[in-house]
Fold this protein.
Amino acid sequence: MLTSSELEALLLTLTVAARAVAFGLPLAIAMAWILARGRFPGRTLLDALVHLPMVLPPVVVGWLLLLVFGVRGPIGAWLQNWFSVRLVFTAQGAALACAVMAFPLMVRAVRLSLEAVDPGLEEAARTLGAGAWDRFATITLPLAAPGVVVGAIIGFAACLGEFGAVITFAANIPGQTQTLPLAIYAALQSPGGEDVAARLSLVSIGLALIGLLAADVIGRRLRARIGR
Amino acid sequence: MISVALRKDFPGFRLDVAFAAPTPGVVALFGPSGAGKSSIVAGIAGLLRPDAGRVEVDGAVLSDAVPVERRRLGLVFQDARLFPHMNVATNLRYGLRRAPAGEIGFDAVAGLLGLDRLLDRRPHSLSGGERQRVAIGRALLSQPRLLLLDEPLASLDAARKAEILPYLLRLKTALKLPIIYVTHALDEVFALADTLVLLESGRVVAAGPVAELSSRADLPLAARDDAASVFDAEIAEHHPARRLSKLRAGALELWVPLVAAPIGQIMRVRIPAREIILATEAPSAISLHNIIPGVVRAIHEDPVRHAALVEIDAGAALLARVTPDAVARLGLRPGGKVLALVKSMAVDVRGDAP
């Protein structure tokens, strides 16, 4: 079975991923809505920016995060001064790095789902007296729920595997920022660590599989519920 | 009183309409596809912003500044647009929960539209006709000042149409709610409408009481195969032994096969133009019951059909389609006297289901 330090890495990974999704998903929904429904100049550019983490080397994302959220970065310094919050080299930082990397995946899933919602239904809700937020909360979001749930699960699974951005921005500190992939990497670096690496890799494979299967099953259930 | 004036320029098409109608009552917007019917509905509902316009419903002016969600107009779309993630009851309550308290109650609407047994069902398990009834109920429960029905029967087959039409008739009599009804089916106009607005390529060709327009010889309606005079008549007498009823509309009296409705009830009467025979002397020894004296108001030739359309004032207005030869032989001219011979069996009498 797993040793206590391996278990620690597993729990930390789950916590980091959960935080990343909790923080990133609402923003991803907002961004998906803007990209799906907004008609404004610069939409294509915004779309490209959102997708950037998918195509950039994760190390570059980590380094950019250091520049912005580092102790001397514009937002990092502000957080430090006003809230005494430090992101670099912390679990929160790892969650931030994961959220940024998983963001495009979540936006994509939610956006596809939002685009499948018939605007005619929103129009009907409007004639029945529902204002903009009301329509979004009672019609658009419930109908896009399959995409939101799938986005959350895919995002969560992606966070479990995030390596480059996390190690660059949050470093590899056991018990604080050493998530599963980082722990596997560290194990492989130390002599005789193959057993540890193998066990943690199996755990990773298991988690990823569970995530993908859950996304599929839940997505199908929800789609059946809304009659599609 | 409803008054609507809308103007909007589309690429290659201009909508410029104005009409008014008394309330309560059903106003039918009738015309071919592309006449602008649905644009008018969208304009009234606020879903389409006109270049210029004014919509007034019973004293409430709905300017451009009033957003769709605050207009309180019940709009029923051709494709029902029920919310797929809610059951029928939740769909019905959607507008009700967002409307100020009103007179139209949930149970009353469910009863009126026969929805009681559907309440737990999901929209995708309903038939097209059932969906449309739920959509009408949902719109009604939002306590609208005006009900807008945009071709609600167009996507249904003949059997489903026949299933819904009686519900619409009940709606008309049970609720004193003004209704604007868009259709390109003349039989729906004749069955439901009080006021008719004839539309063609974005313009109003004619607007007025359906009894008046249906029998006008000079309108495109009269050239249709299903042209007919339509008017409301009161049941005056029943003669069960003869199996006849007598209807009365103004000075016009009409014998028809026994009607299953009480004396005094107002019925909708339709007499197809091609079923009326004209004469200048009353025939004798004939099976005919209705020999109606009248005065010719206008005569129009229909060159395509080689027909003459004769508009007659006989207490109610009647429209007859005969041959131009018959007009010449009888010497018919505007202002002259004429007898309209109407078979009892040719008269279509409809009323609200008791």
